[in-house]
Design a protein that fits this description.
It comes from Enterococcus canintestini. This is Deoxyribonuclease I. The protein is 60% helix and 0% strand. The protein is built from 13 helices and no strands. The longest helix has 18 residues.
Length: 217
Amino acid sequence: MNQQLYALYQKMFQQMGSQGWWPADSKEEIVLGAILVQNTNWQNAALSLKNLKKETEFSSAKIVALPLEKLQEIIRPSGFFKNKSRGIHEVFNWLLRFDTDFIKIRDYYGEDLRNELLNLHGIGEETADVLMLYVFDVPVFVSDTYARRLFTNLGTPGLSNYQSLKRLVNLTGFTLTEAQEFHGLIDEFGKVFLKGNKFSDSFLAHTKINLRKEEEI
């Protein structure tokens, strides 16, 4: 276990408490939310989710049965609706091959699951890791924009893209719940302190972590 990383998680959890991420009533809703929130804010994604729930109750079969044009209209509030509707159809058709049994899918693909997700239309690295973490219950790290901003402020240089942080963070020793909370804590912290120059006002202002130094050891 990376003790510095775990100490950071504990400090954030003690200060902020449980964030209850990912907020959803079903894993199907999480899948949809993870796609819809791409390149927009959660408020817009939530509007599309509300429309989808009314139309389909988040049933995989009902989602894939929707004509593409109808689906596009339903999810219009979250933007990029043509690309996202295609992604939703492809992902849910894939899920239905396994009767939307997430455990069966995880066990079938094993270590290849992330790559399989990346092969689906509309699933990039961040979305794949979100699905791994919250849908397939694999304790992985999501090195999204807020995470990169956080670790840059903590003293880790050169975090210019998703993989630059992803390859430095190992959550060995974290439970699934802790890994899920860690992502939620980072994003909720980010909404408050990682926009503008507010980090110096946060409870982490004097915390220093350079993950690259550990990489060199």
